[in-house]
Amino acid sequence: MTTKNPFLFSCHDLPRRAGEMREHELTFDDHEPIGVPLLMVPSDGAIYVDLRVEAVEQGVLATGEVSAEAIGECTRCLDPVTFDIDETFQELFHYEVDYRQKPKAKEIDVEDEDELLEMEGDFINLDGPIRDALVLNLPVNPLCSEDCEGLCTTCGVKWAELPDDHAHQAADIRWAGLGDWKGPNS
After folding, report:
1. Is the pLDDT of residue 81 over 50?
2. Strands, E, within 29-151: which ranges?
3. Contact 67, 38 (CB under 8 A)
4. How many C-beta neighbours within 10 Å does residue 18 have?
5. What was the pLDDT predicted at 1?
6. Please, which residues bridge with residue 123 across strands?
7. Where in the chain are the domains?
8. What's the whole-model pTM score?
9. Residue 67, SS3?
């Protein structure tokens, strides 16, 4: 069973003449979660893209402004956090090559062919550029606030909720077995 890619965008209305341009406002709200378990755009979270597609000699140049809201938890205290993402991307999608025809004299010079994005008929796949714009700009360690003190390692309560004199008696585990001993005179 294959699922439909929500990030496929049709450029059918864009003439294949260099200089032609179209602008679109897109909303993607049915996709798989994007990010890491600690901080992600959920599957029902809206991803907004202001997209400009331009016909150029080699294909379609897609320029987009991506905005979304990622949700997750603070790495110090585990409280819920939200993170607004506003990033841009620009990618060139090459026209499909018809391998039955003779190759043109002007070859595409690309160092790594895996980085070459190719159109699928009249469609461009915005999945990679959108995913890169979102994931690569998420913080590695999201915090609820810059001054979050985290949790007490002994009792697990947030330091912000504990009194200033909060402390735990350090127990030496080497003497733990004698904790209930009453002594010879008891």
Report:
1. yes
2. 34-36, 39-41, 47-55, 59-73, 80-94, 117-118, 123-125
3. no
4. 10
5. 37
6. 10, 120
7. 8-148
8. 0.74
9. strand
